[in-house]
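> call design_seq(struct)
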């Protein structure tokens, strides 16, 4: 039989899939066709855009490391979104790219405020 979740071949009558761990309540022998992830379903993206991951990571890192990483998060987020839109469902990570982009924008604003505040304080001490 085949796992309905991941399509891996598993021993007949298995209680759960050894590949993905999904519990199999009713082992059906009638459906012999393995449910493979076919090429004709564009609804499920095969891979996540690397730039989207980079954007989110940089956005998170930007909280601690400052302005440049935050700006890079915006850049990567923008690139990721355009890649995802062009791919027409082939590449996923849309939410991740937006999260990175938004995080980057927020952190850039915060860092600019912080740097201006620090600069102002420095000027006053002169
Ligand atoms: Zn499975």
């Amino acid at each position: 039989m085949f796992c309905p979740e991941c399509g891996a071949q598993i021993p007949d009558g298995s209680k759960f899939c050894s590949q993905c761990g999904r519990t199999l309540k009713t082992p059906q022998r009638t459906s012999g066709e393995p449910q493979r992830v076919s090429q004709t379903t564009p609804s499920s993206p095969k891979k996540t855009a690397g730039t989207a991951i980079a954007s989110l990571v940089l956005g998170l890192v930007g909280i601690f490391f400052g302005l440049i990483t935050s700006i890079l998060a915006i850049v990567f987020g923008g690139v990721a979104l355009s890649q995802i839109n062009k791919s027409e469902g082939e590449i996923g990570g849309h939410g991740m790219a937006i999260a990175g982009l938004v995080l980057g924008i927020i952190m850039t604003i915060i860092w600019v405020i912080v740097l201006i505040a620090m600069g102002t304080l420095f000027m006053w001490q002169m």
